[in-house]
Design brief:
The chain is mainly alpha-helical. The protein is 73% helix and 0% strand. This is Putative ABC transporter.
Length: 99
């Protein structure tokens, strides 16, 4: 059964769809999973005892606190600015002669 499309000439072949999905999953793996695994590998290289001992270090908690404060400030600001820019781009018209 063919997938429904308003214009049947615009449907992609199954092989192309699978290739694009594989490319997206590969990019996700490369940009998200590999760095996360590397961070945990480096953190646990000395063993669980050293890892748990480092969690009791006040400097480690200071770094975690600073990271969370930064994220709590930057994420909402980025979201507001992103929505504002998206709204502007959809409302404004651009002419080729102004470039």
């Amino acid at each position: 059964m063919k997938p429904y499309s308003a214009n049947p000439n615009l449907t992609e072949p199954r092989r192309l769809r699978m290739l694009l999905i594989a490319a997206a999953l590969g990019f996700l793996l490369l940009m998200l999973v590999v760095p996360l695994v590397a961070v945990f590998y480096e953190a646990l290289k000395g063993g669980w005892d050293l890892y748990l001992k480092s969690l009791s270090d006040p400097e480690a908690w200071s770094a975690v606190k600073l990271t969370l404060i930064t994220a709590l400030i930057v994420v909402p600001v980025n979201a507001v600015l992103g929505v504002a820019m998206a709204w502007l781009l959809t409302r404004l018209t651009f002419s080729a002669s102004s470039c």
